[in-house]
Amino acid sequence: MNAMYYLKIKIPNTIYRIAQFLEILVSLLVIAAIILSFGTILSQLGVMASHPSDTEGLRSFLSTAFTVVIGIEFLKMLSRHNMSSAVEVLLFAIARQMVIEHTTPMENLIMVISIAVLFIIRKYLFIPGLDDKQTLTVPRTDEPLSTEDEFSGSTRHE
Fold first, then answer.
1. Where do the TM regions start and end (predicted)?
2. Exposure letters 25-62 (e unless 16+ CB within 10 A, then b)
């Protein structure tokens, strides 16, 4: 019996705690990378100010800026654990690829279709109440509630 307890309860709980710790560690590393990237963005902005006609400098700046935004959205996804964050990260990643990279018309069409599919998922297939823990809890009121137990048919007063 004790061995089954460890196999079914103790070991999975330990693995879950380790995974949570590693997730926090990755989040801290992402925060550090984002902070360091702000320095790169500022230096690229200075280069662009001194050479305003340099289109390659603009492309490099936009690439870095989009990467930082995707990193911030990824950090939100790690901290929130909901579908809307995941969809936002995918939207930004596809948009970055479209704006920064020189792609073929077929690749552009595929990316536009991908963005449209993500918007459709977000609009019609996404149920925000499933991710919002506050909407899943029943608010407490001062007056007693009487509910009928579905299984026994008895009335319960809280």
1. 21-45, 57-75, 106-125
2. eeeeeeeeebeebeeeeeebeeeeeeeeeeeebeebbe
* Structural domain containing residue 95: 2-127
Angle at 112 between CA 41 and CA 94, to 5 degrees: 30
Question: Does 150 score more than 50 pLDDT?
Answer: no
Rounded Cα distance between 109 and 115, Å, is: 10
The pLDDT-based confidence of 86 (bands split at 50, 70, 90) is: confident
**In a domain? residue 157:** no
Q: Report the sign of the C-alpha dihedral through residues 30, 35, 40, 41, in that order.
A: positive
Other residues' Cβ atoms within 10 Å of the Cβ of residue 146: 8
Q: Total domain count for the chain?
A: 1
In one-letter notation, the amino acid at residue 64 is T
69 within domain boundaries: yes
Q: Closest Cα partner for 59 from 103, 100, 104?
A: 100
* 37 occurs within a structural domain: yes
Structural domain contains residue 143: no
Task: Give pLDDT tens digits for 118-129.
Answer: 888 888 887 766
